[in-house]
Amino acid sequence: MRIVQLTPGTGSFYCGTCLRDNALVAALRRLGHEAFMVPLYLPPTLDEAAASDHMPVFYGGLNVYLQQHSRLFRKIPRWLDRLLDSPALLRAAARRAGATQPRQLGELTLSTLRGEEGNQAKELERLTDWLVSEGPVDVVCLSNALLIGLARRIREKTGAAVVCTLQGEDYFLDLLPEPFRTQAWEILAVRAAELDAFVAVSHYYASVMRARAQLPADRVHVVHNGIALDGYPQTPRTAVPQPPVLGYLSRMCPLKGLHTLVEAYILLRERGRIPELRLRIAGTQTANDMPFVTQLQDRLTRAGLRDAVEFLPNLDREKKLAFLQGLSLLSVPATYGESFGLYLLEAWAAGVAVVQPRHAAFPELIEATGGGVLCEPDDPKALADTIELSLCDSTRLLQMGESGRKAVRDRFHVDAMAQNVLRVFERAIAYRRG
User: Fold this and answer.
1) Do 274 and 175 sit in the same domain of this protein?
2) Domain containing 194: what range?
3) Any residues with CB less than 8 A from the CB of 224 and at least 6 apart, and which?
4) 3-class DSSP state for residue 376?
5) CB 160: neighbour CB atoms within 10 A?
6) Which of 136, 224, 354, 376 makes an SS bond possible with 372, Cβ 3.0 to 4.6 Å?
7) Is 4 in a helix, a strand, or coil?
């Protein structure tokens, strides 16, 4: 099977979606398929070897922005487009711009959802021309539903089945100001009818998107994420690190609930029942995240705990694995409807138990693995109580960590994900051919 995975890159920081899609493409290749990951907007930043080197960037971030705001740039020659799509230039622009802010992107989001009817129609033609020039394609997989405007033209020009992964689009769309928010959901629902299949990363998120985007139920399939296990321990943990270390591994931003975890940690230290407890915070940190991180650091300073907390931004894979090995427990108390949470698989692969809020995909994943416990969301006291009970029972902590480790090795590794995704691709091809 010949498969093209279209994935937006970040240009300057690690992103769970890029890591997931890159690992998937590598696994598909190991299974004997001709698979490629083609970046959109910006080059990807990866902590594993790139599955597809030397792929051109399409829908380059500078071109997309300029074509949205100027008719002139919708007509410039392709040699100038290619200059603006230079990976070095895009990475430099990404570093200066920081993270994308959904509230500023209403008109641009509507335009890209409209595909060939939007201001970036030239970019879509360039992408589809390239797909045709590269030879027959069986499946084109869109990384998320925000790319759904590409599907109609891709199907028309290539004849390929088009599949869309569903992984966290709702929170982005819901941050758009009105009337763009309502219009975006309406366009998405119309365009969704043109897709051959959808891959939701959890049952929770499949239900969310079936309802909100009016997706045809028979075309929505659930495939849990998986991770590559290279570098993770082959044997069970024999002891919980002491003194205990509470960990966080995700983007350092309010949506991921880092402030809730910091407040819970302060409560735990004030109680004094785990007097040597430390907090280690790792994950993506962009320029736009720095004011929030600084506020948290100031809060810890006022509590007299700044020296007990480490901030470890943008770790590479080797350092991330070492970080996980040093944790007693992990918690990422996300405040929104997280569609999955790849950091859970990473913690479990290292034999680390988790404490997560009782909402979004977390109950589904903890039930499936036995790798942790749940608490009430957005409640520092409830989080502190649950963390304290967990850390005070090292036997139970080891049991949960080992249960999670076995589950990842049995069912949540990248090869299992690839095999399940392939089954969806086969169904999509059958649907496309009628």
Assistant:
1) no
2) 2-228+414-432
3) 201, 202, 340, 365, 368, 411, 412, 417, 420
4) coil
5) 22
6) 354
7) strand
Token readout for 93 is 């622009």
Checking phi first, is residue 171 left (phi over 0); if not, alpha (psi -120 to 50) or beta? alpha
Report residue 431 as tokens: 């649907």
The torsion region of residue 330 among left (phi > 0), alpha (psi -120 to 50) and beta comes to beta
What's the CATH code of the domain at 403?
3.40.50.2000
Residues 83 and 224 grouped into a single domain: yes
What is the rounded distance in angstroms from the CA atom of residue 315 to the CA atom of residue 327?
15
- Report the distance separating Cα 282 and Cα 315, nearest Å: 7
Give pTM, 2 decimals.
0.94
What tokens does 132 get? 């045709």
Contact 290, 198 (CB under 8 A): no
**Helix or strand run (H / E) with residue 158:** helix 151-158
In order of 80, 145, 169, 228, 382, the CA distances from 19 in angstroms are 30, 18, 17, 10, 32
Q: Are residues 266 and 383 in the same domain?
A: yes
3-state secondary structure (DSSP) of residue 265: helix
Local structure of residue 405 (DSSP, 8 states): H
Per-residue pLDDT at 103: 57
Which residues of 208-336 form beta strands (DSSP E)?
220-222, 245-249, 278-283, 309-313, 329-330
Tell me the C-alpha to C-alpha distance, in Å, between residue 4 and each of 48, 126, 158, 282: 19, 15, 12, 32
Length of the chain counted residue by residue: 434
CA distance 144 to 302: 41
Do 123 and 50 belong to one domain? yes
Instruction: Compute the distance between CA of residue 387 and CA of residue 392 in angstroms, rounded to an integer.
Output: 9
Residues with Cβ within 8 Å of residue 335, at least 6 apart in sequence: 254, 255, 256, 257, 260, 377, 378
> Mean pLDDT over all residues of the chain?
94
Closest CA to 78 of 60, 95, 93, 91: 60
Q: What is the mean pLDDT of each run of 10 residues along the chain (434 residues)?
A: 96 90 97 96 90 87 87 83 80 63 78 96 96 96 97 97 96 92 97 96 98 95 97 96 97 97 98 96 94 98 98 96 98 97 98 98 98 98 98 98 98 98 98 88
Q: Estimate the crossing angle of helix 394-410 against helix 380-391, to 10 degrees.
A: 100
Evaluate whether 92 touches 162 at the Cβ level (below 8 Å): no
Overall number of domains in the chain? 2
Pairing of strands 245-249, 220-222: unpaired
